[in-house]
Amino acid sequence: MRTQVAIIGGGPSGLLLSQLLHKRGIDTIVLERKTRDYVLGRIRAGILETGFVELMREAGVADRMDRECFVHDGTVISYGDNEFRIDFVEHTGTPVVVYGQTEVTRDLYDAREAMGGKIVFETEDVTIHDADSDAPYVTYTTHGQEHRIDCDFVAGCDGFHGVSRQTIPLTVRREYEKVYPFGWLGILSETPPVHEELIYAGSDRGFALCSMRNANLSRYYIQCSLSDSPEDWTDAAFWDELKRRLPAEHAEKLVTGPSIEKSIAPLRSFVTEPMRWGRLFLCGDAAHIVPPTGAKGLNTAASDIHYLYHGMVQHYLDGDDSGLDGYSEKALARIWKAERFSWWMTNLLHRFPDQSEFDLKMQQSEIDFLRSNREAQSVLSQNYVGLPY
Ligand code: RFL
Ligand code: PHB
Q: Which residue CA neighbors atom 5 of ligand 2 most closely?
């Protein structure tokens, strides 16, 4: 088989790139390790920057999103019973959009299938060969049979645990990582959200987040210990702990119900440099991870796809390689800012095991400053709605 761009990974990054390139007449094959249902069963991001929304529109897959999404002009931040609101639109003129990653991915799969896009599921042993030559190729097996795809470029969109990043030799690759000493326990429940906007809640017992997917589907998280497993937490214990971390006014209004999904995500900051090696380009979680506190993971994947897509279009349609040559530097410049913001939001609102009394005072002063200072709120807003591409 031959294609122009072999895409490893059928998550949001790989599918969005495939769909955008297809619209410009550039041929791709997507290789996904799991089944479509498995990918759609992962409950992840909920908040989209407008840059992401515009990319979905450009890809021709925004109709359902435009109909069903919620637009949020701001968010609530609380500590104990004290809360304040930050108005993104007042500070930046831009809101964010609430539309789940599951729905984004479903829309992309539907569009790829409708256009006859080539997606191979349940691929095993995907291996990238000769990425630093002019003739790269990818081999994989499905149902016991080995296949080979010759291509011009390989896009590594296979997430944090994928093979693409590992293909770059350690003599070239430099990795930066911070692992946080806690995780997020998340549940999904068919209950109305406790508040019309998200609530990011710090408390003496740890962080909590009230988010949503739609008018009768809520997504809640609490900071938990890394040694916990979802089975340790009954629904009743989760709701009790969540209420303790929210301002009383919201805790009283919280509608509880059975969880329909419960999982724990560890928190990590991670960046690999460079994001390009020869004809291999890394995108999304394959190249970088942020703790979810700033809602930046999927959104940084989208900015990578934006840069790579435009670089590929320049290459194929104009014979100009400057976009591809500048990809790594340009993508990383935006990534590091999102890394900083996510790290800062995480430090602002979580309880750390080794925090001293002094550290707690610093955290409290930072929250007080944010509450009372317009410029600080503006800085948070600019980062939250997304820095320009
Ligand atoms: P994905 O989604 O991990 O997709 C990679 C795909 O590659 C496949 N794969 C392989 N395929 C073939 N061969 C191999 N060897 C392969 N290895 C892996 C995998 O099966 C998978 O289908 O990466 P992608 O596409 O880069 O997308 C990144 C996003 O999923 C991620 O950044 C976000 O979910 C992060 N995130 C959030 N991001 C936001 O922008 N806003 C949020 O509100 C937000 N909330 C979150 C989040 C992530 C969370 N978790 C669970 C980590 C909340 C949580 C709890
Ligand atoms: C979510 O709805 O899953 C969500 C929202 C905001 C975040 C992280 C996750 O910062």
A: 46
Indicate if the pLDDT at residue 45 is higher than 90. Answer: no
Q: Is the CB of 298 under 6 A from ligand 1?
A: yes
Determine contact, residues 275/281, Cβ cutoff 8 Å: yes
Task: Please state which CATH number belongs to domain 5-49+100-177+268-345.
Answer: 3.50.50.60
- Residue type present at position 145: Q
Active site residue 72: yes
Ordered by start, the domain boundaries in the chain are: 5-49+100-177+268-345
- Atom number in ligand 1 closest to CA 284: 26
Q: How far apart are CA 233 and CA 251, in angstroms?
A: 19
Give the 3-state secondary structure of residue 364.
helix
Give residue 113 CA to ligand 2 midpoint distance, Å: 28
Question: H or E element: which one contains 88?
Answer: helix 88-92
pTM, entire model: 0.97
- Is 296 among the residues known to form the active site? yes
d(CA 108, CA 56) in angstroms, rounded, equals 9
Q: What is the mean pLDDT of the chain?
A: 97
Q: Which residue of 209, 210, 262, 296 sits with most ligand 2 atoms within 8 Å of its CB, as the best mutation to test the pocket?
A: 209
Decide if 157 contacts 9 (C-beta within 8 A). Answer: yes
The kind and range of the H/E element at 155 are strand 153-156
Confidence of residue 43 (pLDDT cuts 50, 70, 90): confident
The rounded Å distance from CA 172 to ligand 2 centre is 34
**Average pLDDT of 203-218?**
96
Model pLDDT, residue 19 = 98
The tens digit of pLDDT for each residue in 189-201 reads 999 999 999 999 9
Ramachandran area for residue 271 (φ above 0: left; ψ -120 to 50: alpha; else beta): beta
Q: With a 6 A CB cut-off, is 167 part of the ligand 1 pocket?
A: no
> 104: CA distance to ligand 2 center in Å?
14
